[in-house]
Amino acid sequence: MNFNPRSLILVFVALIAAGGTAFLARNWLNAERGQATVVKKQEVSSAVQILVAKKDLPSGLILKAEHLRWQAWPDKKLPKAYIRKNQGSLSGFVGAVVRSGIVEGEPITKARVVKPGERGFMAAVLAPGMRAISIPVTASSGVAGFIFPGDRVDLILSQTLKQGEIKRRTSETVLQNVRVLAVDQRTNDQENEPEISKTATLEITPKQVEKVAVARQLGKLSLSLRSLSKLEIAEGTDASQPVVPEAGSSHTWDSEVSRVLTARAGGGRTVNVTRGGETESYRFRRAK
Hints:
Layout: H1 5-46, E1 48-53, E2 68-73, E3 97-98, E4 113-114, H2 121-125, E5 131-136, E6 152-163, E7 166-183, E8 199-204, H3 206-218, E9 220-225, E10 246-247, E11 251-253, E12 269-275, E13 278-284
Antiparallel strand pairs: 1-2, 3-4, 5-8, 6-7, 6-9, 7-8, 7-10, 7-11, 12-13
């Protein structure tokens, strides 16, 4: 078998060229990978921790610790509005209210939330269509300081009715399942230390505001704390769909409390009391 020397030389040169090309390509790929690794390490090392939403946060939501988290963020042209970990604490935003909806992973900025004491805070807390009204409370009428912002209460009216010389005392549930917005000027529901307060701010409808304003003139208002069971108010309820308080349906007369007032036999005076279309008769004895 005869070999052409010229052909052998060409084959040899081709093999050398192919090997050289493969070697250069390999070195180039290794260099690119190394450069990418360096850039990635530089990005990681330059990343900062910023405050972001841990889940979707609807407008009007009062922030809690479980709504927020710190997340690494590349420090390239980072907006000044972002909250860096070395510039603030997560607890500093607990109790703030979301102005407009924030999606999961979105950075938290001061413009997106309003903190207690800032202008517009109460307006941000209120659900759409609802109103805020404050009523005076005492140690006895405010459940000894164990009512906190976010709790649900019933509003009780106690009053004295007079007919001639006879005075009747009664109490009734004016509204039930009312949301407490603030106690005095405190709106942070993370503070669980009981404190005797002087005012409670409630979230009700415009018509109910009128009713409460009249009720304050009729007698004494008290708060009755409700259970925060999931049947009454679901976890994570959308603030855009508020739980509207309902009108109360029960009342109690003094004669239902004291046996002396229920005496109907033997002399005395009969008093007819008409309320809500129903008439009740009571006979009273004069004290001997």
